Structure formats: C-alpha cells, structure tokens
Amino acid sequence: MTDFVLDQSTIPGVVLAGGRSSRMGRDKAGVTLGGRSLLSHVLARLSPQTAQIAVNADAADGHDLPVVSDSIPGKAGPMAGIHAAMVYGAGLPSTHVVTVSVDCPFLPADLVSRLAGAVSHPKQIAIAASEGRSHPVFGLWPTALASDLEEWVRMDEKRRVRDFLLRHDVTEVSFPLHPTRASVLDPFFNINTPDDLMEAERWLKALRA
Predict the structure, then answer these.
(1) Model confidence pTM above 0.85
(2) What is the tens place of the pLDDT at every residue in 61-75?
C-alpha cells in the first residue's frame, strides 16, 4: 500500500497544439467543429478538470491563456510539447501536469481524476487507453522528469513517445467507449484529416441528439 495521494485540484493542464498539422493542411487548433474551434472544444472539456490551463503552441488566438512554447527547437514532436508542459507545471509549482491533444474534442470529462487516482508515487506517469490502445499524449506527467525528458529528446533521433515511457514507471488507465444515439464513440477519436473532421461532425450531432 502507498500513502501517496495526488490532489487533482493542484494539477495544471496543457493543450498540445503546436504540431505541423500536415495531413489537415492547416493549424488544427483553429479548425471549426460545430461552429467552434477545436481548441475551444478541448478547453471546455479540460478546464473544469484542472487548476489552471495553458496552450503549447505559437499562439492561442481568441483565448486569454498562457502560451507555453517549446524550448527545444525544430518542431521536435509531441515530446517537446510535453517537456514544455512539464517546465510550465514545475514553475507554478506543481508535482504533475496533464497534457491532451488539441485534435481530440471528445476527451473524457473524468480524464484527470482517473489518471490522478492511478498514480501511486511522485515519479509515476499515468497515460490513458481505450479499446486496448494506449494514448500517451493524454498523460499525467511528473514535472520532476523535465530534465530527463529534455536530454532524451535532444539525444534520441526517433523520439518515439513509447521509447521514453520505457525509461520510467508508467501506469495505464483504460477509458470506456461513450454510447451515443448512433453507436459508441471512442473519447480519444482524433481529427487528423478533412475526412476525420466530417466524421467528427457526425459524432457531434449524435452526442447532441
């Protein structure tokens, strides 16, 4: 048994919105779904779950939020954004920070509480999963690992998220599919292409039915 308990009310969140968006052809944060930007959708889902929130991007157009830029140059991938989130959390200060992707507008409303409840010690990472697939960008990260992550990003040419996770103690939390009038929705459905956006519009209508 462990006496460690992570208080959700102290956990900040960072929306990762600094990717290249090559398959979408434009910045995904500003892509419109149901009349609102993807960033707006994700903020509405995540904000009630966190102590405060920031965006990892070049800018957060239309939102009065802290912008957390990568300190590792060259668009080094999602782990560079997660590193920026760790540094942001450490400066608050907070022991952990949660990250989510801007292209997942249906993320679980209990994401942070369930990830926090799974952490058993201060340096453990918790990541989300659904239908047997892990979603490591949706993770709860110890801010004490920022230096280790920075060194790893600079030294590892492949920069696979799972390779970094193998270096640390990780717990995985499985989230159920969400029932709708049409079918069941994976809450980590992500929008990478215009076709995905059309499908997301259909899911949004099903959720509102």
Answers:
(1) yes
(2) 778 899 998 887 766
